[in-house]
Specification:
Elements (H helix, E strand, L loop, with lengths): L20 E3 L9 E2 L1 H6 L6 E3 H6 L15 H12 L4 H34 L3 H12 L1 H9 L4 H17 L1 H19 L1 H5 L1 H13 L1 H28 L8 H8 L3 H6 L4 H9 L11 E3 L8 E6 L4 E6 L6 E9 L4 E8 L6 E8 L7 H4 L2 E4 L9 E4 L11 E7 L4 E6 L6 E3 L12 E8 L10 E11 L3
Antiparallel strand pairs: 1-2, 1-3, 4-7, 5-6, 6-16, 7-15, 8-12, 8-16, 9-10, 9-15, 11-14, 12-13, 13-14
């Protein structure tokens, strides 16, 4: 029976149409159901789910925007992998069977060729004695010595034998040389073809699979451990500092049933997490640098989502904005930044000295460069690998410890890679700093670009 036929749709409060769509937004305050006209009037139509499709969906169907708020690229990649799904165990088993059958066939073919070759070259033992007896004239000598003739005749016949042997010595030597050489080659065929060496080399190459097996096991264990860590974080860190559902799901993959079991409803959880976010300390503190085009960088505080959005249009070649809120060694700071696209030429995120505002990040290198591979900017690897590329919905975490003269940049929420300032560009523990975003162009890529970066979290803390 069609599930939709049983569904009683409400009417849109705004357009008086049936609401066939569900809007995924935490700012709607319970008004989640929308009509078709709502979608036409809303630029963010990718945030809508078609109720009919949800109710009638099969278990084997992947929605392009579900799970909600997650990385679109990962969902598309998952969908593509499922469409091209092939059971690797069966493929590996078939591969080994085909490999074995082909190897047996090749071995049998080579065996036949080698044996045929040896058969044509074969040296019979009796043949060797026959050749030797012919060259030595042993039969004639034996005949002369066995005669009962007088001594004079024997001496005469022996003289003929010796003269003939002497005259044919070079030909006899050469014949013996060829015979010995042929015998050596024939008897040495086992070492010439050296099947044991071939077998050993083949087994060694086959054993190289152990490296691949170990690599596979390591990757599998890492993924299993990361998944376990996420589950543990869910139970142990429900007070994680996140202020909106998009970041909440990206960070902890919150299990609503687990929240119910712990008698903590969703509203209480959001309230608890949002209370840790001190983003309002930066609100209205934006200042623009001395670049002429910095005025075309726009900063907006989105109250419903509790984020500070920084956008750069194509008019801006170079420019930066800083937030005039002093960060000093008395506290540590945790800042989370979300990229809304792949960026452009380069973006440097870091700290500028509050007393030397003209000393820009591209000079001080007290920040990390994104979109441009330049490890002078926050490129010292403390854990994992160096990273600089960004993608849509990517989130990084900055950890600022001015007392320790260091800024760390971490992939969030995995924390698999930690990059930090190079030793020659450390902070001054006696200075105070401002959070800064620097936009620029590359000489190899001078095309203007648009980009948007969000500050989604700011916290002053005593320790990380």
């Amino acid at each position: 029976m069609d599930i939709i036929g049983q569904q009683n749709f409400s009417y849109c409060q705004r357009h008086s149409c049936k609401t066939h769509f569900f809007k995924a937004s935490i700012s709607e305050e319970g008004n989640f159901f929308k009509c078709g006209q709502c979608i036409l009037e809303d630029n963010q139509n990718k945030n809508y789910l078609f109720i009919d499709s949800i109710l009638n969906s099969k278990e084997e169907y992947i929605f392009k925007n579900l799970p909600l708020f997650c990385n679109q690229t990962l969902i598309n990649e998952l969908d593509q992998l499922l469409q091209n799904f092939k059971e690797p165990i069966q493929l590996i088993e078939e591969g080994f069977n085909n490999f074995r059958n082909e190897m047996v066939s090749i071995i049998d073919q080579k065996k036949k060729v080698v044996l045929t070759c040896l058969q044509n070259y074969k040296v019979e033992k009796q043949e060797i004695f026959n050749i030797y007896n012919q060259l030595s004239g042993k039969a004639y000598l034996k005949q002369v010595l066995s005669q009962n003739e007088n001594q004079e005749k024997k001496n005469s016949e022996l003289q003929v034998y010796l003269r003939k042997q002497y005259q044919q010595k070079e030909q006899t030597d050469f014949s013996l040389h060829l015979l010995v050489k042929k015998m050596k080659i024939y008897f040495d065929t086992a070492s010439i073809f050296n099947l044991q060496l071939i077998q050993k080399d083949f087994i060694q190459k086959l054993n190289n699979l152990d490296l691949k097996i170990n690599e596979f096991n390591t990757q599998s264990e890492q993924i299993s451990q990361q998944y376990l860590n996420l589950q543990n974080n869910l139970m142990e860190k429900q007070n994680t500092k996140i202020n909106n559902s998009n970041q909440l799901i990206n960070e902890q993959h919150v299990d609503f049933e687990s929240s119910k079991n712990n008698k903590l409803n969703l509203n209480d959880l959001f309230s608890e997490l949002s209370s840790k976010n001190q983003l309002k300390l930066l609100q209205g503190k934006e200042q623009f640098a001395d670049y002429q085009q910095s005025k075309d960088i726009y900063v907006n505080y989105l109250q419903h989502e509790n984020i500070i959005s920084i956008s750069k249009n194509q008019k801006v070649n170079y420019g930066y904005v800083y937030f005039k809120y002093e960060l000093d060694k008395s506290k540590k700071y945790k800042i989370r930044i979300k990229f809304n696209d792949k960026g452009g030429a380069y973006i440097i995120i870091g700290l500028v000295d509050s007393k030397i505002l003209t000393y820009h990040l591209n000079q001080s290198k007290q920040g990390k460069c994104f979109c441009l591979d330049d490890n002078k900017y926050g490129g010292k690897v403390s854990k994992g690998n160096y990273f600089s590329d960004i993608y849509q919905n990517m989130v990084i975490e900055m950890r600022v410890d001015i007392e320790q003269m260091q800024i760390q940049f971490l992939d969030f929420p995995q924390y698999e890679h930690i990059n930090q300032l190079q030793n020659e560009f450390l902070l001054n523990p006696d200075s105070s700093y401002y959070l800064t975003f620097h936009f620029g162009l590359q000489q190899s890529c001078p095309q203007p670009y648009e980009t948007m970066v969000d500050i989604i979290y700011f916290e002053e803390t005593e320790s990380f």
